[in-house]
Amino acid sequence: xxxxxxxxxxxxxxxxxxxxxxxxxxxxxxxxxxxxxxxxxxxxxxxxxxxxxxxxxxxxxxxxxxxxxxxxxxxxxxxxxxxxxxxxxxxxxxxxxxxxxxxxxxxxxxxxxxxxxxxxxxxxxxxxxxxxxxxxxxxxxxxxxxxxxxxxxxxxxxxxxxxxxxxxxxxxxxxxxxxxxxxxxxxxxxxxxxxxxxxxxxxxxxxxxxxxxxxxxxxxxxxxxxxxxxxxxxxxxxxxxxxxxxxxxxxxxxxxxxxxxxxxxxxxxxxxxxxxxxxxxxxxxxxxxxxxxxxxxxxxxxxxxxxxxxxxxxxxxxxxxxxxxxxxxxxxxxxxxxxxxxxxxxxxxxxxxxxxxxxxxxxxxxxxxxxxx
Length: 373
What we know:
By secondary structure, this protein is mainly α. The protein has helices at residues 2-28, 36-53, 59-66, 69-96, 101-112, 123-163, 165-168, 174-183, 190-210, 226-243, 250-270, 288-301, 309-320, 324-334, and strands spanning 358-360, 366-368. It has a two-stranded antiparallel ribbon. Helix 1 (2-28) packs antiparallel against helix 4, helix 6 (123-163) runs antiparallel to helix 9 and helix 10 (226-243) packs across helix 13 (309-320).
């Protein structure tokens, strides 16, 4: 019996300390810290949603299914913390007091959940009961305070992604950004766009590293995704620098730089491998034929090009090698909308091209809704 009580004491102490470390890492310490517990819970919760979603070949259906995974993960993590505290304090009460294991867990549950219906009149258990009684409200209070910060970061992220719709189509595509700006003679506005997304990338790098569950939160529309939006802006900047270096370069360079800094921060958070110092001559997965498809879209939009596609390709590849591999890994992991130039997805045969709405114009002719469409 003494041996069992000693083992129960150290096991309970280990569970309580480990759970407290997980709570602090996820809700309190403003650093890129994640516990193995929450990472495993996230994978466990996401697995059944992925299995069900993979049975559908329609991406909109898959997106609706996967949209429930991240919010449910938050609830499961909270419940898991409370259950682990109940187990840890139950083992401590059993080890310290002369009571049965069933009574010990009943008393621990009463204290952690502050119900107060079960207690034993033993002085040496008072400290454990008080600690357990404080733990439950503190964890729940931290989680309540955590949710507003979480959804505030989500709303900031999605506002810019929504604004990108008229500039990049849906799903977003880098060449579409330059083509649409060229078609309405607003290339001068690209600098403002790149500045805005530089700040956006910095915000996402900070918020999504601290609150990793945000990486898996999905947009309101199935054809809209934060990662695809960032990738399209970075591709637009790389295309501008490669094809028309006479345009303002500072903002485009900074957008790419902050973009891959953001992606690398998220790769560290999610445990994805990446090359910290890739060579500009390294190969990329995007093919030259796909690059020519983007150049053709720029030509149709009237984007001015100083270099030929053959001349621009090495420059574009040198920029894209900094962010392509991480983008493709993240896009596959979160099952982002399969946009052009965003890598392969499970169970998706071909990428989705940006949608161009068409309306009925006066006189009975059909045409684009506007030059922005």
